[in-house]
């Protein structure tokens, strides 16, 4: 079947999609969007998290055909083609919260969503929001630092624009 949807702001088509195919597979293998990572393929690790119609989902658990006519935003779509990395992406770089990088795309999407809903999350809010995202490398402290940094930058930008 053919699946037509909006990926990171542009209309895309994937052909010859088979019924059991996941959104994750379609993004990576058919559409050249390899940012979302396939680590467990069972909804356990969060590495494949993308926005679907504005809500974070594990793309390994979504059937490709389910996104017909809908909007998907991946980690690639967080960056601005003109201004570069999104604040959350930059904060992860600056805080040294990326090691092997396998968990990073999912953490970025989930953190982006958290800060859209709550600009100044407590440590508990952060832990809760990221509880479905597993990292095998960093021990989470640098990830926490990155989210705090992204939050602080977002808050100071909001103050400037007021
Ligand atoms: S690859 Fe989807 S949750 Fe692990
Ligand atoms: S940086 Fe390697 S799994 Fe998180």
Please give a structural write-up.
This protein has 162 residues and is α+β, with helices and mostly antiparallel strands. The chain contains 5 helices and 5 strands; from the N terminus they run ββαβββαααα. A 5-stranded mixed sheet has the order 2-1-5-3-4, sandwiched between helices. Strand 3 (49-52) and strand 4 (55-58) form a beta hairpin. The longest helix has 21 residues, at 141-161. The N and C termini lie far apart (49 Å). The structure holds FE2/S2 (inorganic) cluster (FES) (2 copies). One FE2/S2 (inorganic) cluster is lined by residues 98-104, 135-138.
Beta-strand content: 5-15%
Distance between the termini: 49 Å
Shape: globular
Helix content: 25-40%
How would a crystallographer describe the biggest sheet?
5 strands, mixed
How many strands? Answer: 5
Indicate the multimeric state.
single chain
**What ligands does this structure carry?**
FE2/S2 (inorganic) cluster
How many helical stretches? 5
* Overall pLDDT: 95
- SSE topology string: EEHEEEHHHH
CA-based gyration radius: 16 Å
Low-confidence stretches: none
Structural class computed from helices and strand pairing? alpha+beta
- Order of strands across the main sheet: 2-1-5-3-4
